[in-house]
Amino acid sequence: xxxxxxxxxxxxxxxxxxxxRDRQTAFTTLVLPICMYPVLFWIMAQGFLVLxxxxxxxxxxxxxxxxxxxxxxxxxxxxxxxxxGTANRLVLVDLGFQEDVPPGDLLEATSGVGEPQGPPxxxxxxxxxxxxxxxxxxxxPKGELAESRVTKRLAQHVGQLREQxxxxxxxxxxxxxxxxxxxxDVGPESDKGALLLATLLPMLLVTMCVMGAFFxxxxxxxxxxxxxxxxxxxxxxxxxxxxxQGKVLAVASLAMIxxxxxxxxxxxxxxxxxxxxxQGSNITINLPWQELLAVAPLALLFALFVxxxxxxxxxxxxxxKEAQAMLGPVQMVFILPAIxxxxxxxxxTPGLALVPVLNVTLAAKSMLxxxxxxxxxxxxxxxLLLSAWLALKFAVRLLSRExxxxxxATISWPQLFSFLRSDGDASR
Amino acid sequence: MTLDTxxxxxxxxxEALTKIFSDPERGKVAAVQDLDLACNYGEVMGLLGPNGAxxxxxxxxxxxxxxxxxxxxxxAGADITNDPIGVRKxxxxxxxxxxxxxxLTAEEVLQYFGRLHGMDEDTLGQRLEVVVKAFDLKDFxxxxxESLSTGQKQRVSIxxxxxxxxxxxxxxxxxxxxxxxxxxxxIRFVESRREExxxxxxxxxxxxxxxRLCDRIAIVHAGRVLAVGTQEELRxxxxxxxxxxxxxxFVARADHSPEQAADQPxxxxxxxxxxx
Amino acid sequence: MRGASITRTVFRVEVVQLLRDRRAFFAxxxxxxxxxxxxxxxxxxxxxxxxxxxxxxELTVLxxxxxxxxxxxxxxxxxxGGPATLIVNxxxxxxTNQPAASxxxxxxxxxxxxxxxxVGDTAQAVLILxxxxxxxxxxxxxxWYERKDESSRTLSGRLRExxxxxxxxxxxxxxxxxxxxxxxxxxxxxxxxxxxAEDKGAANLARFLPIMLVFLLLGGGSFAAxxxxxxxxxxxxxxxxxxxxxxxxxxxxxxxxAVLLTGLACLVSNILGLYLAAQLGWEGxxxxxxxxxxxxxxxxxxxxxxxxxxxxxxxxxxxxxxxSFREGQHKLxxxxxxxxxxxxxxxxxxxxxxxxxxxxxxxxxxxSLRDALLGELTLGVTLAMILSHLAWSAFAVRQLAGLLDAxxxxxGAASAEEAGNRRLASRxxxxxxxxAVLLMLGLASRLQAQDMLNGLLTTLWGMMLPLALVCLWHxxxxxxxxxxxxxxxxxxxxxDLFLAILIAPGLAWxxxxxxxxxxxxxPLPEAVTQNPALAQFFQSTSLGxxxxxxxxSPGIVEELLFRGAILGTLARDKKPVRAVVISSxxxxxxxxxxxxxxxxxxxxxxxGTITLRSGSLWPAVVLHVTYNSWVxxxxxxRLPEVLVTGWGQHLVWLALPSLFLLLRPRKPRSAN
Lengths: 428, 276, 672
Prior knowledge:
The structure holds three protein chains of three kinds. Chain A is α/β, with parallel strands linked by helices. Chain A has 15 helices and five strands. Chain A has helices at 2-20, 23-57, 72-80, 103-110, 141-169, 190-220, 222-227, 230-234, 240-278, 289-314, 320-341, 358-368, 374-399, 402-406, 413-421, and strands at 60-65, 90-96, 123-128, 131-136, 179-185. A four-stranded mixed sheet of chain A has the order 2-1-3-4, with helices on both faces. In chain A, α2 (23-57) packs parallel to α9 and α6 packs antiparallel against α11. By secondary structure, chain B is of the alpha/beta class. Chain B has a domain at 12-96 and 167-262: 3-Layer(aba) Sandwich (Rossmann fold). Chain B has helices at 55-62, 84-90, 106-116, 121-135, 150-162, 180-195, 207-213, 231-238, 243-256, 258-263; strands at residues 12-23, 27-39, 44-48, 70-75, 78-79, 91-95, 168-172, 199-204, 216-221, 224-229. In chain B, α8 crosses α9 (243-256). The longest helix of chain B is centred in the last third of the chain and has 16 residues, at 180-195. Chain B is globular, with a radius of gyration of 19 Å. By secondary structure, chain C is mostly helical. Chain C has three domains: 1-56 and 197-352, no CATH class; 57-176, 3-Layer(aba) Sandwich (abc type-2 transporter like fold), CATH 3.40.1710; 415-672, no CATH class. In chain C, β3 and β4 form a beta hairpin. In chain C, α9 (248-279) packs across α11 (305-321), α18 (424-450) packs antiparallel against α19 and α21 crosses α27. Chain C is globular. The two termini of chain C are 66 Å apart. The interface between A and C is large, with 124 and 119 residues. β5 of chain A pairs parallel with β4 of chain C, so a sheet runs across the interface.
């Protein structure tokens, strides 16, 4: 047993050293996450600022029917808004008396190509006995702006009117609101951010892990055939299962390293840079490091499972290129259930704990929220180990086949099935 | 782990070794069929044959890279079907395609194989010293394998194959792709192994190499052994003077009467029996 | 036309080769047709099931009616009780006895304990009613819940929804009661959405179509680009091609055409898959309403073709640089991310397309695509977009032709290494420059968001200064003692320092003018210009601290890093102009703001030029400190009146002659 462990670790050490000496792999595993997240978040934050600035400076023209009949106060409230300036401008265009034409038609008629002398209207505002009406096309960018600006300003104006009326009647402003609604969360403030992360992190964990295992897995199986060292490896004086164990362990370690680096970079850069976007929403994004540590063992098991599956699959390919083409769909097989797992309403149950990938997402989700479900977690761990072991067996059976050692061709499906039906000899 | 010390038993012994590949386009193809072979310690045996004759497949079966479809074989006392790991522990195998891990240094490759052969650090250190001296690796020991020249790579490969001091060496066309100097180094290496009483089985399609090195030659064609014997025996049998003509004569004989050749592959020769 | 025929030949050969790689072709081009319907309808099914199960989940709310009048409480409970919601009455005073709503974190434990004890497993939320006894009083309804628990969150959402609609009814009633008539009644706004079902569907589609198209192109085109460029280089067939007497750019064009064709084929098959998915009832495309988008509008999606061309050209460029298939493959993920980001613009609500945006690669095309789907394409902007994208593509293809330079391909390794050796120093400097930018983006913004003053000081003295010193030390060790240290060691002329001070007011005036001009194209949102936190910071911090943190520290540390270390090392093997431009790019990028990019770049260039011309770092340090102080004092209105409106305003004019004197060509000083 110790001999087996020693040999496995030997292989792992060698593979890790070899893989990390490859510039591209090292770059994708270590450097890319550190550069990618800050830059990505920075671009998002800056883009948000630029777009926000552009939006605020966009002038919106709104046609008003029967403008002459309206009170000056009202007009001023809508025209200038609470804070006059260059931002959020709403220009009112007097459409005169339009008794016969429905306001909706006015919008159609004047927006777009018509009305050569004026700018196109984003909305048409009309006042009648049964309230104010705003006709806009919400699908158009300016329609949306017109709606939000008119609604906001009108509501403010109406609020003022009511307050004045209440004051005149000797009532407090709060009296106008008979039912005051408040929601209190018993959890700490940080739960807000934690919840946001708890819904996203499990998926991110799975995705990062699969992505991190991808290149090493290809490199250590198909890549070896491409480099012409497959035969050398087959000559190692230890059972092939041990060699493969070592390789899978190496891939899993690399996946874990990549995941850790990703999380670190994400955690460090997210808060500062996303603050611009989340301004005012009172949400802080702090990675829950303690909870993440609790998830770590689970992540390790999952990494083993992913490594075994990807190594086995890419072992079928002749070279890097084909392995790539094969692993694309396999990757989706991992990532889609992960996306499903973060949907609301799906909880970890003993039954779901047996479904690979989905179980990891769900278990990570409940772990991040601090739920204690010993039975389910044990089931998840067990099923992960079992599936990792099965994938390993599958890989050994596949890789110990002579065709993989000798032919330079990719294995065809019929061939694959015939191999699987026949008895594999892992002891070789 | 105990080495078979009974030197009277043949180093390599194969009986009715057969390998059938299933090819999606051509159906079942017998790469090697009913091959018998025996090879002793202190002997250099050459497999001579054209490309596609089944030489590589034979050597791969003997070194347990491939599993035989039928037949039995023992190498250095270990059965190739039942104890493949025992075989791999006792042989050194080298071919044109046994690449070195490009991103490891020469030293790391040697250490890796040494450790997996179960050597402790002391033994490994001693063996490293020996092979570094023997193959003159000192200058590029810490260079990555991808940066070595072809000749240097070849020397590291040989060192890799003998790091555990195997008693049986199986070499698959070891001089292919080597320049003149490197090839002659290789030949000298094989000769030195013979002096030390090891068994060397190697395949080649270069007649001069076979002529110079081999104690015995097995002529392989289309997956069968056509003849086995010393160079003199083969010449006598065919009455030809040059090895090239001897080879042609056997191939012609086999093609002329395929039935006969199939039934009695080693018709006139002492055949599978070990030669003393 | 010789070139055209070469292009055609290459194109045909490449396409035939691609088609023969059946497995890859199948995976890239045909698989999506089946995959999409499966994937999308599957995820839809799952989502509906999940949402449905949440809606139907039977949940219990514990209600403490307190002193609320019974008839009011009954009305409330009637509203609350509804499908899948049970009500239990109880006493929740243990919760209300705790410090209220915005309680400090220290009381969290108590609250959580009280909550656990109260609800246990029996209820998922607590509703507490208070007040409402008098006719004009206010009834306070507080919903207690636990956010991280899914059931509790769902129930609180349900409660809020139901209570809110009740609140609206009650508010209207109360207005009539108190005010007689509602003064706002005549102004009650009703919004009529004129958008047709088609518009809605189109708007929906426009939100994800651009990003999806780019991903599909990259996914499908990558296999072609990789085998045509990287794969060919690996197989050594590129050599054969380049020694043939064919025109290089014609060859490149042919190859590019093959990639483009594959990308477009892949696009078509994917869209077919999407269409199938829609037929199978996937809701995303129909916009919730019936009808869907007319073919005319869908045809408008052709405005995205220039972007497709650009994406394929960029893809070829990335793969053409790769030496092997593997290397090319590693570039795809970063490329995908990089190309997705400009398309995110379509997610911004209410953003109008304009000429400026039209020039931005991919962003312009994405917005045009949106407008096309909405049926609002404007001719001018669209033309600008098409022209700019074609120009970008042409630029990329030209670069591509340069990459396939025979010498680089054939003698690749040796000459590349040689060239690399020559530019080691500038690569060293650039690595540190990137490091500085990453530190600023990743860590510094986080630190400064937490605590402006300490964050700033930590960034400068704790991160930038060590980085500068390490860079200098490292460069010194690698390349031997030389220029960067000379900048710092050499004693400046006193007159230079004095001149540097005189430039500051003029520089501030010019930069302010430029920033104002920039507002026209790149307006800052009000959240930034009128940031109360920042104003508060300036007001509450003493002048000395401000000067130290915002003028002296950056002046010294930034100059040491960007001019001393980076520019000094760059200047070893780059021409002065290039060295200044590159170091200024890092300087401006490190300021981590798009709006400050232009001004900081200009200032950086000026400081770099001054450093190189005067042969010393210290004039630049002095100018940087003076400039920062001047701008800060001016901005916080602490500059003496006489300097703003008095004789001080004429200081501006001193900048030009000072600058001229400082930058005049002169002999390099000997190393005394």
